[in-house]
Structure formats: structure tokens, C-alpha cells
Amino acid sequence: MRRNPRRTRPWAVISLLIVALAFSGAWPGAAGAADPIKIGFGMALTGGLAANGKAALIAMQLWEADINKKGGLLGRPVQLVYYDDQTKGATVPGIYTKLLDVDKVHFVVSGYGTNLIAPAMPIVMERKLVFPGLFGLANNEKANYAGYFQIMPAGPRPALDWTATFLDLAARQNPKPQTIAIVGADAEYPHNAMEAARENIKRLGFKTVYDSTYPPNTVDFTPIVRAIKATNPDLVGVYSYPPDSAGMVLAAHEVGLRPKMFGAGMVGLQFAALLTKLGPKLNGIVNFDVWVPEPTLRFAGIEDFLKRYQAQAEKAGVDPLGHYLPPFAYAYLQVLGQAVEATKSVDQQKVIDYVHKNEFDTIVGKVKFGANGEWTTSRMLQVQFQGIETTDIAQFHKAGKRVVLWPEQYKSGSIIYPYEKALK
Amino acid sequence: MRGHAFLVVAVAVVAAGLAVTRVLDNQYYYFAAYVVLQYVVLATAWNILGGYTGYVNFGTPAFFALGAYTAVVLIRWVKAPLGLQLVAGAIIAGLLGLALGYLTLRLRGVFFSIATLALAVVLQTMFINWEYTGGARGTSLVRPATAPLFGSYVQFLFVVMLGLAVLAVATAWWIERSWIGRGLAAIRDNEEAAECMGVPTLKLKLVATTVSGVLMGLAGAPFPYYVTFVEPTSVFDLNYAVNSLAMPMIGGTTTWMGPVIGAVLLGTAQQIATVTISSALNLLLVGLILVAFVILAPEGIVGLVQRLARPRAERTRRSGP
Amino acid sequence: MITLDLFLNAVTAGILLGGFYAAVSLGIAIAFGLLDIVNIAHPVFVMLGSYVAYTMNLRFGLDPILTGLLFTPVFYGLGVLLYRIYYASFERKGAEALRGLVFFFGILFIVEVSLLLAFGVDYRMIEASYVGRSFHIGPVGIAFRLLVPCVVGVALTGALYLFLSRTFYGRAIQAVAQDSFALRLMGANPFKVKDVAFGLAIGTAALAGALLIMIGPVEPAMNREYIGRVFAVAVLGGMGSIGGTLVAALILGVAESLTSTFYGPSWGVAVSFGVLLLALAVRPSGLFGR
User: Fold this and answer.
1) Which residues of chain B neighbour A185 with C-beta distances below 8 Å?
2) How far away is chain A from the Cα of C158, in angstroms, using its nearest Cα?
């Protein structure tokens, strides 16, 4: 075949283009990497968990600003390096490998959520890194990796302790309830929670009359709630994510579900969006929470943090209250920062050892980690929504609408039992 | 390209890949390159059915995920080595392609496409409900720490995917030049006429769906070890459907080169975008580019280049009514 | 457990849902059934309608049905625009099959991602006085949020049926579906007729979207679940038969509801595709098809 230059030239151009693009992957790593201490992570900035992820990011950036105002860590400025994991587990290995190998970060922390922490574990374990975790349930159960720390206050046996709170509270009521219905989404957290709930149920002697899951993208909960109502349970425990939590509450009202206690593990009832959407429909629900503005929980620094967070949250369009994830996102960086300062090094093993042996002072109170990286004592709260009459958000900034019932040392009110009484 | 030229290039590419693993230690590039090569396979596989035969497959995720989940099952059940996972993934996905083809290829093209959508949804529902592979929660796997001859397992996966990419492209190249390819082109241009001329349309379509399925399954099989955490939402991601469709459309659907160009360009661009701009914006761009190409440059880049490369006299002669 | 109570409720919910599915499927019944345009992007336009209703509800407190009606002309215009691009790029050149499909897929993607960028992935709901309420007839509960969309859906179907059978343009649309060439011989311009028809098809998405957000919370990716449903309804009903669309929608609604209640909600969506494949395999012309 004759070589026609007019034919080959475009191909040459195209090949050059391809090669150029392939090598453009060699974008410069951090220039002048020597000075700042870099902390890298993936965070859900888009996708299902983005609402929380973005809120967490704001909190983390507040920490970055605070620590740099005080002179940084070990005299060096701190820089957060992060990428959007799109709430997709598949992006996590790539992101963390890039952070470590290209961006050359000194430390990595986790993204938000059980599903986004899991894919990073093999990488941090392989390279023996300290790995603070943000709100994942039982991520370290199988691996028992020493470098993992979880800032969620679930307790030493995370799933068991988390679920025990609602059930123990129920068992103390007089007369003791007999039957229970549990339901949850078919996803990592609800699955772990329900498994643990079953153990607690056995221990406390309840009789399970309904135990089922629904697919994660269900929107119509009426059939499920009807089926639950048909079994006439004394207790109803729901383990769900925000969209389903809202759906369950609405369906419960539509169908007229009236157990003696209703709630347990509904994620989402901690956020402004759902608080204002559901308003008085929340009354009587006993659900988990991690921090509420009750007088028993005023830790040093939390109010100041919330004020600054809330100022930024408005603009960024994220949860305007910031009571759920943001304080803990700030706290898990606090732990890392304090450990680095105390050991005066960026040596991973030294930091890991320090975290295991010491107690930390954070804006969410004193934190101590056990051997498996979880809190030594559970501080998962059970709160009950009481006295909500409007859908106005201002009421949730103050004490009184989400009363802490458990644990004893943080109790700020008494339970309204049975559930129906709170609905008046 | 002629036979020997192609073989030489293929060997050179694989050799280059191997050489790179000796030299480059930075793991991240292998992660990123793996994804781009994976898309080369998916785009080429899609094109065999889409570009060559004219049947649009919206269900790439179904075949890809089936390959991945077959690997997961084998890992859990018998701790199978990668080679076995690849073969099994290929066979199962191929069977799915065959079954789908048999059920739907007698219908109009558009129903085949909708059936592929259905397939993805139904398969996803099945895996969400299957506890053995983790159901909706997914399952995490431990990747072998090292592979023989290579520094890290990821480098090994990179070379494996490189090999698969070469295999896929070689298959497409061979089909294109064989009687199968000519038959498929006849079907694409006018299926009824092809039938009348004696082209065994059903058989050829089945071959195309099966081969396409096999290649997509091959792309999916190494995925569990690559990502170490497999859950239905990310494995059945619509991105695979859009990309495996956009890449050939952008690159050019009539030859084996089109999907390769499309995959390399779009894949690399997306890898860069993942770590620079917001991911949703990145997807929006893909959609816009796709529509733009479909309307304005339906032959893709390959077609554009061919048009520009034609000598002027020929161009004016050929551009008729 | 299969109790009569549960069964009756499932069937009722299914019928009500079916009325709504009819509303959503009308656009496809016209576009695909009559005009042979495979607009897989139709459900995403329904989502767009939902978000429009959401925004109007949020900003101005407008009732979603009102918003739906108000925006029907806007969506009609959108449909006309889309058709003209489609016509200029594909239909005129006779190259519809592959590229038309890809075109609509691209449009689907663009609209879905734009909604994602504008509204995020969180579920959005509307506030309306009747949304949380329900009444009971014996053991059967009827929720307003299902009843209203059903009634409106059936009304829309009826209106469209009358339009197609009684008005000039309506009959022209039916004619162009049967024999475009003959229509031209009769002096009508097929392009103009299809223009109107496709505009109408997308126009129904405005109201359908408003109804959708009334039933439950919406998020952009939901459109994909509906692709199967609308095509199942269109095919089962018989391409282009409006009455058939309603009947098929009711059948689908009940089938889905029963499956959700007794086999678990996971399989609800898969049912629509199952129905579609079954219909294609057994009776591709549908129940009332030509």
C-alpha cells in the first residue's frame, strides 16, 4: 500500500494526542511538598451520603483553620487533601492510592460511612497506617487492625452496644413489653444492627413477631408498615437511612401504627431537613443520637464550633443544625492532631500506640479508645422527641425537644411511655 | 491494518506494558491505567454488537457485574486463582449473552435494547437478594499481596487487563475482516435485505451477543481483586452503560480503532476529572459530548479523520446528495 | 402471611398506582406507540416535571396539580424542540435506529445529571394538605396521595382519548401512525402532525411529574425504574391504544403491588420488566393493539 502522507498525517496527530493525554496523567505532584503536613481522605461530596459528607468537610476545614491559627502541627502548617468518593466504594482504592503515592500525604483518615471505610482498610493495613474512622459500624470487626480508630461513640462491641440502648430502655418499662417487630434496609449498617439487635432481643426475652428487610431504594413504606401493624407489636425497631426513615415515619402515621415504643436506629432523624419536614410527627419516637443541645451535653468547645459551622452551613447548603456528623468530624481530626503533637513525630506506629494508651479531650467530650479502636464505653444516646408543635427549625437549636433518656449520666428528662401519649 | 502489522503492534504494546512495571513503582498509575484499559475492553465489546451489528446494548453493567460476581463466588467458594476467575466469568457472561440473544433477537432492535435495560435491573435485584455474595451490603475481599514476577498485585492486574484489552481488540479486528463481520455489516445496513440474501442473521447476531458478553465478562472478572469491596450499586453502575456506549460513538463505530480511541480519550479524561472537578459535572460532559457526536459527527473521530484524510478531488466527487 | 386484609389493600393500592402509571405512560403511548420514536428519555422528563412541581411548591406554595397544568405548555414546547432536533438529525436522513436511540439516551443522561447538579441526590417531597391523610372503607385504607394521582391520571387518559378520536389533529396523529404517506396524499403535513404529537407526549410529563411527587419522594435516578414500566405498559396495552394503556397500567400496578407485598418489595420493579418480556414473547401486538 502506498504511503499517502495525507492519510498518515492525521493518524500521527491522533497518536500524539493519545500519548500526550496518557502522560498528562503525570500531573505534578505537590510542588514543594516538604513543608506542610498533609492529611488525605476521600469524602462523599456527591452521591447518597453527600449531605453528610459535605457537612463533615466543613467541620474538617474548620479544624484545619483552627490548627493553623495555632501554628500548625509540629510547627508546620497542616493541609487537607481530599477527593470526592461519590459515595461509591469502587473509587476508594484509587483515591487512597493516589493520596499516598502521588500526593504523598503524611496521614490518611477515612471518608464517611461503613461502605466507604471498608475498601480503604486493605490499603491502610498493607502500609501499616494509623486510620481514624468517621461513623462506620463495625468496620474493624473482622480484621481487628490496631491502627483503626472510630470516632462514633458506639462502644466496645459497636453493633451490640448500639442496639442495646433502645432495647434496654424498653425492658425497663413497667409493665415490660412482650413483642417486638424489627425492620431495616438491606444495607451494611442496618444488617449489622439488626443482627446485633436479635442477640439483644434474645438476651432480654422479647418475642419477635416481625423481622424483615426492604431494598434500599424503596419509596413506598405503607405495605411494610401495614404488615407490621398486622402483627400488633409492643415495640417497633427500625434501622434505616434518611430517605427510608422519613418514609417509615410518614407511613406509620398514615396507617396508624401505635406500638408502645417506636424508633431505635433511624439515621436521618438527626438532620434539620427531616426534623423540619416531619415536625410533630416525630413526637414520641425514641431514637439514637450522638449529640443534642441538652444541658447535660455541653462539652467545652462544642457551642463555639457549632456557631462557626452553622455560619458556613447556610452558604454551603448543608444541614444547618450540624448536630450529627460535624462535631465528630472535627473531633476525629482533633484526636489525630493531639496524638501527632504529643509524639512529636509523623511516625505511624508511634501515633497508633499513643492513641491506644491515652484519653483525648475533644469537643464531643473525653474519648478513650479500646484495643479494637472503638470507644471503651458506649455513649450512644437514646433520645425521645417531645413537645414538637411546629416544623420551625429554631426550636431544635435549643434544649427540650430531643430529651436524652440514656445513658444515665447524660439523662435530661423522662420518657413518655407508651408512644401514643406523646402524640397528643 | 494488515495481519502482521497488527500482531507486531499487539506484542509491542504488551511488552511495553511489562517494561513499565519494571520501571514505574508508583501504584496510582496502575490503578488509573487499569480503568482505562477496562474501558477499552468494554467499549470494544459493546461495539461488536452495537457498531458492527447495529443493536444497542444498554445493559453492559449486567455482563460486567456477572463477570465480577462469578469471580466473587469462586473466590469465596474455592479461593480460585485469577485465571480460573477469568475463564469462568467469560463463560457465564457469554452464556447470558447467548440466552438474551436467543430470547430477544427475533424482535425489533428497539425491544432488544429495552430488554438489555431490563436485564440489568433484574440481575441487580437478584444479586441484592443473594446473601452468599453479600446481598445489598456487599462483600469485602482480601487481595493477594504479591503476584509471581511482579512487584505488586496491582501491577499484575494492570498487565492482565492490558492482555485482555489486546485480546478484545484482536477479536474485534479479526471479526471485522472475516465473513462474520461482513455478515454483521449487512445486518446493520438492512436486516431484511440480508435475510433475503441468505445471510444467517439469527446465528450471526447470536455470535455477536455471545462474543460481546464474553469480553464484558472478562472485563468484570478481575474487578473484585482490583477494588476489594464488591457491592451491587457500584458494580451495576450506570456509568458502565453510558461509557461503553459513548466511547465507541465518539471514537467511531465502524472499525476496531474507534472504541480504542474513544476509551483512551474519554477514559483518561474521566480519570483526570475524578480528581479535579466534581464528578456529576464530569458525567454531564459525557452526556453532552455523546449527544453532540451523535448529531454532528455520527461516524466518530475515526470517521472525521477519514473524511479529512481523503484527497480533495475524491471528497468533492463523493459528497453527493 | 396472606391475609384477606393485606390482599385487599395490595390490590387497591395496585389499582390506584395503575391509574398513575397510565398518566406516566401516555407520553410513550404517543411517542412510541403512534410515532415510532423510542423516547427512553420520557421518564426523565417526568422527573423534571416532579422537580418543577417541587420548586413551585417550595417557593410559592403552589399545589402540584396546578403547577402541572401550568407547565404543560412549557413542556409541550420542549417536546416540539426535541422533536425538531430529532427530525433534523435522524428522521430526515432515515438513520433512526441506532443513533436515535443513543440520542435519547444521551438526553436522558443530560437531564438526569442536570437535575442531580441542581438538586442533589436527596429525596425531595412536597407539602400539600391532603398528602398525609387517608380514609378507610372497611379493612381497606385509601391514601389520598394515591387516590388523587389516580383520579387525575384517569382523567388525563380520558382527555387524551377524546382528543385523539374527536379532534382534527388527534385523528391526523392516528393517521400518521398508520400510514404516513397516505396522510401526505390527503394534504396534511406529516412533519407538522408529528411535531404536535411529540410535543403533546412530552407535555403530559409535566402533569405526570407533579403526580409522581405527590405519591412519594423523588430523586433524579428514579427515572430508570420507570423506563421499564412505561414501555411495559405501552407494549402490553397495544401500541398507540390509549384505552389499552389504561388497562395495561392497571394490570401492571396490581401485579407490582401484589409482588411487593407478598414476595418482598425488591421484586416490585423487576415485575414491570418481566411483564414486558412476557408480552413481547407471547403477544407483541399487545392486548388492544392493531
Assistant:
1) 136
2) 27
**Predicted confidence (pLDDT) per residue in B139-187, tens digit:** 877 777 777 777 778 888 888 999 999 999 999 999 998 989 888 888 8
Residue with cell 456509568: B239
We report the CATH number of the domain holding residue C225 as 1.10.3470
- Check B309 against A7: CB less than 8 A apart: yes
> Is A248 a residue whose pLDDT tops 80?
yes
- Dig out the grid coordinates for A51 from the structure: 449531605
Question: Which among A26, A84, A119 is the nearest to B279, CB-wise?
Answer: A84
CB contacts of B118 in chain C (<8 Å) are 228, 273-274, 276-277
Check if the beta carbon of residue C171 is closer than 8 Å to that of residue C197. no
Cβ-Cβ contacts under 8 Å, B143 against chain A: 122
Give the range among A321-330, C207-216, C268-277 with minimum mean pLDDT.
C268-277
The mean pLDDT of C268-286, rounded to a whole number, is: 76
Which of 174-203 (B) contact C at CB < 8 A?
Answer: 188
Contacts of the segment A19-23: beta carbons below 8 A, 24+ positions apart: A21/B264, A21/B265, A21/B268, A21/B269, A22/B264, A22/B268
Q: What is the pTM of this model?
A: 0.81
Q: Domain containing B235: what range?
A: 3-319
Residues C290 and B195: their CA atoms lie apart, in Å, by 26
* Residue from C146, C266, C269 whose CB has the most chain A CBs within 10 Å, to mutate: C266
Q: What fold is seen in the domain A35-155+299-368?
A: Rossmann fold (3.40.50)
C-chain CB neighbours of A254 within 8 Å are: 132-134, 141, 143
Q: Which domain holds residue C11?
A: 4-282
Over residues B81-122, the pLDDT tens digits come to: 888 899 999 999 999 999 888 877 777 777 788 888 878 888
**Residue keyed to cell 430508570:** C224
For the ranges A65-69, A121-125, B142-146, C183-187, the one whose mean pLDDT is highest: A65-69
Which chains have at least 3 CB atom pairs separated by less than 8 Å from chain C? A, B
Q: Please give the residue of chain C at the shortest CA–CA distance from A212.
A: C264
What number of helices (H) and strands (E) belong to chain C?
11, 2
Q: Could you read off the pLDDT of A162-195 as tens digits, one per residue?
A: 888 899 999 988 889 999 999 998 777 888 889 9
Residue C287 lies in a domain: no
- The chains in contact with chain B, meaning 3 or more Cβ pairs closer than 8 Å, are A, C
Give me the interface pTM, i.e. the ipTM: 0.80
Contact A36, A306 (CB under 8 A): no
In chain A, which residues fall in CATH 3.40.50.2300?
35-155+299-368, 158-297+380-423
Higher-pLDDT residue of C186, A113? A113
**A322-336, B46-60, B287-301, C40-54 — which is least confidently predicted?**
B287-301
A309: its cell numbers: 459551622
Q: Which residues of C touch B (CB under 8 A)?
A: 38, 40, 85, 89, 95, 97-99, 101-103, 105-107, 109-110, 113-114, 116-117, 221, 224-225, 227-228, 231, 235, 264, 266-267, 269-270, 273-274, 276-277, 280-281, 284
The count of structural domains within chain C is 1
CATH number for the domain harbouring residue B54: 1.10.3470
The highest-level CATH class for domain A158-297+380-423 is alpha beta
Structural domain total, chain B: 1
Query: What's the CA gap between C48 and C26, in Å, rounded?
Result: 16
Instruction: Please answer yes or no on whether A90 and B278 come within 8 Å at the CB atom.
Output: no
State whether B301 and A14 contact (CB < 8 Å).
Answer: yes
Rounded Cα gap, residues B74 and B51, in angstroms:
33
